[in-house]
Every structure is written in C-alpha cells, then in structure tokens.
Amino acid sequence: LTAIPSVSVTALLPGEDSCIVYGTHPVWYHMSPLEAVQQAEYSLRESRHQGQSTNEAAEEAARFVVRTVRERARAAGEEAEDVTVAVTAFNWTKVPDSMKLAREMSRAYRAQFDGVNFDK
After folding, report:
1. 28 against 104, higher pLDDT
2. Residue 95 near residue 12 (C-beta atoms within 8 A)
3. Is residue 118 pLDDT above 60, yes or no?
4. What is the dihedral of CA 20, 117, 83, 75, to 10 degrees?
5. How do residues 39-66 score in pLDDT, each as one tens digit?
6. pTM as predicted
7. The three-state (H, E, C) secondary structure of the chain, written as one string
8. Rounded to an integer, what distance in angstroms lies between the CA atom of residue 119 and that of residue 7?
9. Rounded Cα gap, residues 9 and 18, in angstroms
C-alpha cells in the first residue's frame, strides 16, 4: 500500500462555495468530486434546516457521503472498506459588496489553473 495524495488548487468563492469534501480512494471510485460535493451540500442544507450547528452539519454530511458510497459498493457486489470522508463546511455570512472584486479574482485564478495536474 502506497499513499500518494492527489493535490489540486481551487480558489473559493465566498457565499457560493459551501464546503470541501475530502475522501479516501473508495469515495472517488464510486462518485465524482462534483457528486460528492452535491451530496454533502444536500446534507448540509437538511441539517442546518433542522437547526444543527455548522460543525454538526459537516459531520452529518460526511456520514451521508460515506453511507452513499457503501450503498453503491454493496449494489455493485463490492466491499466498502476504508471509506473515510471529511467535510469542511463554510458558514458564510452576508457577503459585502467589497467581495465582488475578490470573487472576480477567484474566478480568474480558477481559470488560470483549470486542468493543471499537480500530481507530477
């Protein structure tokens, strides 16, 4: 077993990006990064609607993604061992107008590094 991390750079957009999902290999084998974020965002919305704190909601979102991965693995007749997920949830408050420039700069930064592979 050799652990080689996959590293990427992404500029976050305050008020738009709600979370980051970290996961072990089985997560990415059974779902795309976009789908993992969508699953986590769905769970975050539901948990926050129920009055959970940001930390509690992030923990529940991670459990939700793990359950989804394990269900998919079982449906494919596979074992779902070593599935680990961590979710960092952002609790953005109202984004001031001054953040408009920061958002544009973040978008430009994202475009600059789109498709760059840092794993080399």
Report:
1. 28
2. no
3. no
4. 100
5. 999 999 999 899 999 899 999 999 999 9
6. 0.73
7. CCCCCCCCCCCCCCCCCCEEEEECHHHHHHCCHHHHHHHHHHHHHHHHHCCCCHHHHHHHHHHHHHHHHHHHHHHCCCCCCCCCEEEEECCCCCCCCCHHHHHHHHHHHHHHHCCCCCCC
8. 6
9. 16
Of the pLDDT bands very low, low, confident and very high (cuts 50, 70, 90), residue 108 is confident
61 touches 19 (CB < 8 A): yes
Round the average pLDDT of the chain to a whole number and report it: 83
Integer Cα distance of 21 and 19 in angstroms = 7
Question: Between 15 and 120, where is the model more confident?
Answer: 15
Nearest to 93 by CA among 42, 10, 18: 18
The residue count for the chain: 120
Task: Give residue 51's identity as a one-letter amino acid code.
Answer: G
